[in-house]
Design a protein that fits this description.
With 305 residues, the chain is mainly beta. Helix content is 4%, strand content 31%. The longest helix is centred in the middle third of the chain and has 11 residues.
């Protein structure tokens, strides 16, 4: 596990963000994925379906605000000489500690060539077991703010965006951090796909979707959070159809490794998790982890050394 916790982002129609294990650094990065289809120490919220909705929406993103850190951060990894790529954090455990209050902010949008904000979307912070830690609704601009009393501990889990009406035809969207959140997170965008946009993404990828399987959007980064070009993704099970994202932000069946943005999408993943392996230069492993996935949904995440 690298020192930098990566962020989900998107190709023009998906997740965006910045490393969650360090002070946020905003930069526009893109990944396309399918969306059938990234503190007052002590008490914690009671995890139940009756959690109150947080109505304190912000007028915009506050990328510069970072809540007090309960424990000191580990020093950043130094660079090593590998064509300008920093893999010096390979094998290093994530820094301990976290914030008293963890705040995750972002927006939800509708997939398409023009992403429109989606108000009234339910956004949840979940444990790996699916227990709801915090819940809110997006405002008229599609913005949301999740707040959780983390007790100065890292918070594992996922962020989930769900349209409140099952008849609306939108699929659920998830974002999974590469390691538990230990800092505030701003600018986390989740994109909801309907049947039309889902079919478009699959058509561009030359993939026939299988009902009941999951889609996983991935970005491979080095220890400094920079995307790595030339990476090949595989799964331990051999399942799933891998497509790499071109510099134009579209998936291609012709590409055989990641482009400048380090992005890829894996379609038709069965089960509830996928072990993903990223290799470089003929077999050098630069990232490997087990990622939770969900049937008929899309999940975005990152891999680092």
């Amino acid at each position: 596990m690298g020192a930098t916790v990566a962020r989900p982002r998107c190709f023009g129609n998906l997740w965006r963000g910045e490393p969650s294990g360090m002070v946020p650094r905003m930069r526009a990065l893109t990944v396309m994925t399918l969306g059938v289809v990234a503190f007052a120490c002590g008490k914690s919220e009671a995890p139940d379906a009756g959690l109150p909705v947080d109505a304190g929406f912000d007028a915009g993103f506050d990328a510069g605000f970072v809540a007090p850190i309960c424990l000191p951060d580990a020093e950043d990894a130094g660079a090593d000489a590998d064509a300008g790529r920093d893999f010096s954090c390979r094998g290093r455990a994530p820094a301990p500690g976290g914030q008293a209050e963890l705040v995750i902010k972002g927006k939800t949008t509708r997939a398409g060539l023009q992403r429109a904000p989606m108000p009234g979307i339910q956004v949840d912070l979940l444990t790996p077991e699916g227990t709801v830690l915090a819940r809110t609704l997006t405002d008229d601009a599609g913005l949301y703010r999740l707040s959780y009393d983390a007790g100065c501990r890292p918070v594992a889990g996922e962020v989930r965006a769900t349209h409140p009406s099952p008849d609306a035809g939108f699929y659920v969207s998830y974002s999974v951090p590469e390691a538990p959140w230990s800092h505030d997170r701003s600018g986390l965008e989740l994109v909801l796909f309907d049947s039309s946009s889902r079919s478009l993404a699959a058509g561009l990828s030359n993939v026939t979707l299988v009902d009941g399987t999951a889609v996983l959007a991935l970005t491979v980064v080095d220890c400094l959070g920079n995307p790595v070009e030339g990476v090949v993704f595989t799964t331990a099970s051999g399942m799933g159809a891998v497509r790499y994202i071109s510099p134009f932000g579209l998936p291609s069946a012709m590409l055989t490794s990641t482009g400048p943005t380090g992005d890829a999408v894996i379609f038709n993943l069965p089960g509830s998790s996928a072990e993903v392996i990223a290799t470089l230069d003929g077999g050098q492993v630069v990232g490997q982890r087990v990622v939770p996935v969900h049937p008929d949904s899309a999940t975005g995440t990152f891999l680092s050394p």
